[in-house]
Amino acid sequence: MKALTDSYTLHNGVKIPCVGFGTWQTPGGDVCVSSVKVAIAAGYRHIDTAAVYGNESSVGAAIKQAGVPRGELFITTKLWNEDRGYENTLKAFETSIGKLGLKYLDLYLIHWPNPVKFRNNWQEANAGTWKAFEELYKAGRVRAIGISNFHERHTEPLLKTASVAPMVNQIRLCPGDTQDDVVEYSRKRNMVVEAYSPFGVGEIFGVPEIKAVAEKYGRTVAQVCIRWSLQMGFLPLPKSVTPSRIVENTDVFGFELAEDDVRLIAGLDGRAGYSSDPDKVPF
Fold first, then answer.
1. What value does the mean pLDDT of the chain take?
2. Rounded to whole angstroms, how far apart are CA atoms 145 and 159?
3. H-helix or E-strand spanning residue 140
4. At a CB cut-off of 8 Å and minimum separation 6, what does 279 contact?
5. How far is the C-alpha of 52 from the C-alpha of 44, rounded, in Å?
6. In the chain, what's the furthest Cα-to-Cα distance?
7. What is the CATH number of domain 7-266?
8. Which terminus of the chain is less hemmed in, N or C, by CB atoms within 10 Å?
């Protein structure tokens, strides 16, 4: 990967830019609009949002104002936990795409596999949702479909009734939280692995070992984290609302981490927190 617009190829042939701009924890409104516009101006062509973030309308406004042809952008949103089953999923999709102001999505994800609301029948609920995803995909309303926070125990039941296999699994991946089993399984199932919270929700910035690595390469901690994610074969989704940092975070292609540094960063176990158990999240 040599540029933001270089891409991974999904198993259906769709190309997905190798770094995405994340918008989790960016509230809807002027800050979100301006940060997404800055990101697009800085070269990002892959924008990631979700229904639960509450900022789909702002992301849509930024896309419209940015003036970049729709075909050059890759836009992802996610189905929230309140909505499962065939009919509810179709309604939720229409709400999301309406807020975004788009005619189609590039990627639609099931946000979590086992929501509290459906904990007694999550397998059936996900099967109905996936049927709707497949219908949207086959109708051209979505170019790719996938999952988020799914482990093997959640994905295998989905595949029993699926006619189209998931193309992406978006999970929490950052230094010291590498979810090796989930990554290995996802790749075995031909899914591109996206890395949300590549900075560990900011916790990584206080870790001395990664500060030392950043100093060694003359880079920022954020740049090192994004570069590490790429060298691990992940698709990172860095987030910032600070214009200078948004631009700075694009400069990750002019250096390469040595293998011992890649291993050191991966081995910072728990220093930036750990992923939540999808079967125990309280939402």
1. 98
2. 13
3. none
4. 114
5. 22
6. 54
7. 3.20.20.100
8. C
Q: In the prediction, which pLDDT does 80 show?
A: 98
Confidence band (pLDDT; 50, 70, 90) for 104?
Answer: very high
- pTM of the predicted model as reported, rounded to 2 decimal places: 0.98
Give 111-133 pLDDT, tens digit per residue: 999 999 999 999 999 999 999 99
Question: What type of residue is 55?
Answer: N
- The DSSP code sequence of 234-276 is -EE------HHHHHHTT--SS----HHHHHHHHT-TTTT--PP
The answer to whether the beta carbons of residues 207 and 246 sit under 8 Å apart is no
Length of the chain: 283
Quickly list DSSP for 85-135: SHHHHHHHHHHHHHHHT-S-BSEEEE--SS-GGGTTSHHHHHHHHHHHHHH
Tell me which residue of 50, 83, 90, 34 sits closest to 196, measured CA to CA: 50
Q: Please give the structure tokens belonging to residue 183.
A: 């990554």
pLDDT tens, 201-218?
A: 999 999 999 999 999 999
Please give the structure tokens belonging to residue 132: 């709707």
Determine the Cα–Cα distance for residues 74 and 59; give it in Å rounded to an integer.
12
Q: Which residues are catalytic?
A: 53
User: Percent of the chain beyond pLDDT 90?
Assistant: 100
Question: Could you identify the residue written with the tokens 């309406």?
Answer: 98
pLDDT score at 21: 98
Element of type H or E holding 182: helix 180-188
Buried/exposed 75-98: b ≥16 CB within 10 Å, e otherwise: bbbbbbbebbbbebbbebbeebbe
- With b for 16 or more beta-carbon neighbours within 10 A and e for fewer, the 172-191 pattern comes to bbbbbbbbeebbebbeebeb
